[in-house]
Specification:
Elements lengths: L3 H8 L3 E5 L3 E5 L9 E5 L11 H21 L4 E5 L15 E6 L21 H10 L7
Antiparallel strand pairs: 1-2, 2-3, 3-5, 4-5
Length: 141
C-alpha cells in the first residue's frame, strides 16, 4: 500500500504534535494557518465508512484535545474541523484524517462552502436518513 500518511507514521517522518498508540497528530507540509494540524488513526482506514467505532472515537478525542491546545497555546478564538470521506467528497489522501484549523477573528480564511449542491433527491432526505437509522442499519450499500 502506498499511503502518504502510513509512510509518515512508519518512517517517523512527520513533525509530530502528538503520537499515541491508536491515533496521532502532525503538522501538514503546507499549513493554512499557524498551528494547522492533521489528526489521523495510526492504522490505515480510508474514511469514516470503514473506521471502527473505537478508533474513530479515539481519533475524535485527540481532535478535541488538539483544538483545546490551540485555544490555550495559540490564543485561537475558534477552530474548524474539516474532513472528507469517499470519492465524491474531494478526499485528497485516502486515509481518514481531520484537519484541525485554528481560527482568529479577521484571519482572512473562509472554510464554509460558498455554493449549494446540484444533486437532487426526490423525497425528503432527512426523513429518508431517519428511516434508515431507525432500522438500525449502519452502512449504505
Amino acid at each position: 500500500m502506498d499511503c502518504t500518511f502510513c509512510g509518515l507514521i512508519r518512517d517517523d517522518a512527520a513533525h509530530w504534535v502528538a503520537r499515541e498508540a491508536v491515533t496521532c497528530a502532525f503538522s501538514p507540509l503546507d499549513p493554512l494557518a499557524p498551528g494547522h494540524t492533521l489528526v489521523v488513526p495510526t492504522r490505515h482506514y480510508q474514511g469514516v465508512f470503514d473506521t471502527p467505532h473505537d478508533v474513530l472515537a479515539a481519533t475524535m478525542a485527540l481532535v478535541q484535545r488538539v483544538a483545546g491546545a490551540m485555544r490555550s497555546a495559540l490564543d485561537a478564538t475558534g477552530v474548524n474541523i474539516l474532513s472528507a470521506s469517499g470519492p465524491g467528497s474531494e478526499q485528497s489522501v485516502p486515509h481518514l484524517h481531520f484537519h484541525v484549523l485554528p481560527r482568529w477573528m479577521g484571519d482572512g480564511i473562509s472554510t464554509w462552502p460558498t455554493g449549494r449542491s446540484a444533486h437532487h433527491v426526490t423525497d425528503d432526505p432527512g426523513a429518508r436518513l431517519a428511516a434508515f437509522l431507525a432500522r438500525g442499519q449502519r452502512h449504505g450499500g
